[in-house]
Amino acid sequence: MSFAETTKILAESRKVIEDGNENNTATLLTLILSVVTSVEHSIKKIESGMESIEKIKTTVTLLSADLRTHTKNLKDLEEKSNTLETSVQAMSDMYDQCKTEYKTSSNQISALNKKVDYLEKKLEQSQKSIGQSSTKQVQDDEIIELKDKILDLQCRSMKNNLIFTGLCHSKFENCENKLRGFIRQELEINHFIEFGNVHRFGKPGLNGARPIVARFIYHSDLQFVLNNANKLRGAPFGISEQFPAEIVKRRKKLFPIMKEAKQQQRDVVLVRDRLYIDGQLYNIQEDDDFERHMESDSAVNQAPPSPLRSPPNNRITPDKKTN
C-alpha cells in the first residue's frame, strides 16, 4: 500500500470517528486493520532493506581489506623492482669496467709485442752490421725486460682467474651453473659469487674432463674459495690459480724445493714464481745444492746473503692454491 492510500484510509477513519455512528464501527475496524497491515508490510520491507544494507556493508569492508592488501603487495613489488633495477645497473657498470680493463691490457700487450718484434729485428740487424758484444747485451736486456713486462701484464689479466679440474663434462652443460653447484656442494660455500666468465679450455685432465676457468669479479671471493680448497683433500678435484705457461714452468721447478723446505718446518711462501724461505727470496738459478740454503742461523749470520725483498703481506701459501 502506498503512502497516498494510507493517508486516504486515515482520513476516512477520522471521518467515521467524527460522525459517531455505531453502524460504522465495523468499517472503522476494517480501515484500522488495513492501516496496521500496511504498516506491518512496510516494516518488513524496511527490515529486508536493512539486511541488504548490512550485506552491502560487509561486502564493502571485504573489498576495502582486499584493496589494502593489493596496495601493500603493489608497493612491495615496486620496491623489489627498484632493488632489482639497481642491482642490474651495478652489474652492468662492473661488466663495462672489466671490459674496459681487459681492452686496455690487450692493447698494452699488443703494443709490447710489437716492440719486442721490432727490437728482435733491430737486434738481428745489429748483429749482422756490428760485432760488438756490448751492444748485443744491451739489446738482449731490453728484450728480456719487455718480455718480463708482457709476462707481468698477462699475470695481472689472470689475477682474478681460478682453474677447476675434475668436473665431469656433460652434453649441453652450463659451465657457470655446474661450477656454482660444485662450490656449494664440495666447498660448502653458500653465498652468491659474481663471475665475469666461466668456460672450459685446454686438454682433458682429471676424470677425463677439460678444466674450467672462472673469472671472479671480486678478488675477495676468489681468496675465499682458495681458503676452502683444503676441503678437497682426497677428492678427484683440484683448484689452482691461473698463470701464463712460463710462470707455470717456473713454479713446477720450485715445487720440490718448497716441499723439502716444508718438511724441515721452514716458513715457506710461494707467490707467483717467487719462493720465499724464512723470509728470504730463493734464487732457483743458483747451482749450489739446496742444503746450503738450509744452514743454521749462525752460519747465515756469518755469511749474510745479498739483500732480498721481503714477501708481501697478502701472501698465499701453496696449500691454499693446490691440492
UniProtKB/TrEMBL annotation:
<protein>
    <submittedName>
        <fullName>Uncharacterized protein</fullName>
    </submittedName>
</protein>
<feature type="coiled-coil region">
    <location>
        <begin position="60"/>
        <end position="129"/>
    </location>
</feature>
<keyword id="KW-0175">Coiled coil</keyword>
<feature type="region of interest" description="Disordered">
    <location>
        <begin position="292"/>
        <end position="323"/>
    </location>
</feature>
